[in-house]
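Supplementary Note 3. Input sequence used for the single-chain structure prediction.
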Amino acid sequence: MGTLIYAANTSLDGYLEDETGSFDWSVPDEEVHAFWNEHERHIGTSLYGRRMYETMRIWESDDWLANEPAVVREYAEIWRDADKIVYSSTLEVASTARTRIERRFEPDVVRRLKEESSSDLSIGGATIGAEAFRHGLVDECVLLLCPVLVGSGKPALPQGIRLDLELLDHRRFNNGVVYVRHRVRTAT
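The predicted structure, written as discrete structure tokens, is reproduced below.
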């Protein structure tokens, strides 16, 4: 059975992006990129909302990678090797390999996917992540807390629900980013 992991870079005050939609403050350095590479290496399927998918699909193209560090090029390979499910009512076709589009987020389908998976799954994007949290589907939460306050924007975690968490791991990076990994204990 696969573990569903909600993973995100977030500001210290809990936002995925600021009020203008920018997340340039969360661009990882090589050490943090290497961490994400290792994390993503264990993911067999990534679940995305449309906006997150549109952000991530840049990894499909080699055009911009030639002069990037090896750790960045490695991430592109890891991303391409994973299956991707995109939840969108507006996206007509997927522009990346190993990708399928689902029109609606169906909690029972995701439960079956977890049960049948031999590897972990990730879920990315605030809206789709909130749905998974609300339906008790998220098993773990991996956050990289960036040393910045953005004041407002898109919250990284869903509002209006309570989850008791158990700290499984943590680490401080040289650039001040802090990694925390929690297991979801109960949803109420």
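The helical segments are 30-40, 50-56, 70-81, 107-116, 126-134. Strands lie at 4-11, 15-18, 43-49, 83-87, 99-102, 120-124, 140-146, 153-155, 163-172, 178-187.
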